[in-house]
Amino acid sequence: MERRTIFPGIALPMLLVLPQLLLTVVFFLWPAGQAIWSSMTRADPFGIRTQFVGLENFADLFSDPLYVDSIGRTVVFCAAVTALSMGLALLLAVYADREIRGRGFYRILLIWPYAVAPAVSAVLWILLLHPQIGLVGRWLNRAGVQWNYKLDGTQAMLVVIVASAWKQVSYNFIFLLAGLQSIPRAVIEAARMDGAKGWFRFRTVVLPLLMPTVFFLLVVNLVYSAFDTFGTIQALTQGGPGKATETLVVKVYRDGVVNLDIGSSAAQSVVLMLGVIVLTVLQFRFLGRKVAE
After folding, report:
1. How much is the pLDDT for 287?
2. Is the separation of the CB atoms in 237 and 220 below 8 Å?
3. In the structure, what pLDDT confidence band is assigned to residue 117 with cuts at 50, 70 and 90?
4. Residue 63 and residue 156: Cα distance in Å, rounded?
5. Would the CA dihedral through 217, 247, 27, 277 be positive or negative?
6. How many Cβ atoms from other residues are within 10 Å of residue 70's Cβ?
7. pTM exceeding the 0.70 threshold for the entire prediction
8. Whole-angstrom Cα distance, residue 109 to residue 112?
9. Any idea of the CA torsion for 27, 30, 32, 33, to the nearest 10 degrees?
10. Which residues form the ABC transmembrane type-1 domain (predicted)?
11. 118-132: per-residue pLDDT in tens?
12. Residues near 293 by Cβ (< 8 Å), separated by ≥ 6?
């Protein structure tokens, strides 16, 4: 029998909801409104004079080949970070879900990286991969590999992808492990008794039951790779060499904070926000339907 809580009036429910509404308005709706307004204006670097220009900032953006290149670069970066972090997390979760000695200790070690700040994570990767002071970087150069991500754009993109994915593996691992543990063991045993083994059992039995968690993580990783990787990229490469690792969120910072072009930076942030919203809706529209089936 379903039980419902009934309030005698609307004052108490509104009072309970008010803190969340205030947080949403102050930290999301108001900044989003300010960004939309700024995207339709042009101001001098000191913000003294402001001119309303409508959609001119957006027109200038999509006529700029550098901005179009940054869109393609961001798509590749987000896809690579999502695939790498989720794939590695799923592999680790499958092994951590097995009956092995010390698995609790292994789980703790795998969760720890999520508590590391992006800037600190970047410093760790610098100490590993820097061509002069990095342990792995110096070893690669001694082995004859021309390793210098400070000068090679492909290597720089590889470094920021690996560093960003490593930071997110722990988050994905937590949810995937919880998803695996929620699968009834009776189902796994029944599949094993029917002769399903190894990869075939995982693909036909475990993965379909894990799809709601995978779908949720796809959305979360998309948002993470589009927005939350700024600290890692900025600390590692500052968007360089050249513009090889300048994703959309890095370009927003560079144009707005460094170059003081507030109108263009705001327009870029609006485009980025709309892009993530559209991709998230498409994921819910198509992937969500398959999960429900």
Report:
1. 66
2. no
3. confident
4. 27
5. negative
6. 23
7. yes
8. 5
9. 180
10. 71-283
11. 888 888 999 999 999
12. none
Q: How far apart are CA 5 and CA 48, in angstroms?
A: 53
Give the model confidence (pLDDT) of 94-111 as tens digits: 888 877 777 777 777 778
Beta strands 50-52; 41-43: pairing state: antiparallel
Q: What residue type is assigned to position 161 of the chain? A: I
Give CA–CA dist 180/94, Å, rounded. Answer: 8
Inter-CA distances, 265 with 157, 195, 244, Å: 23, 58, 19
Cβ partners under 8 Å of residue 107, min gap 6: 96, 177
- Cβ neighbors of 169 (< 8 A, separation 6 or more) are 85, 88, 89, 92, 110, 113
Two structure tokens written together for 143: 């082995």
SS (H, E, C) the chain: CCCCCCCCCCHHHHHHHHHHHHHHHHHHHHHHHHHHHHHCEEECCCCCCEEECCCHHHHHHHCCHHHHHHHHHHHHHHHHHHHHHHHHHHHHHHHHCCCCCCHHHHHHHHHHHHHCCHHHHHHHHHHHHCCCCCHHHHHHHHCCCCCCCCCCHHHHHHHHHHHHHHHHHHHHHHHHHHHHHHCCHHHHHHHHHCCCCHHHHHHHHHHHHHHHHHHHHHHHHHHHHHHHCHHHHHHHCCCCCCCCCCCHHHHHHHHHHHCCCHHHHHHHHHHHHHHHHHHHHHHHHHHHHHHHC
Average pLDDT over residues 211-237: 90
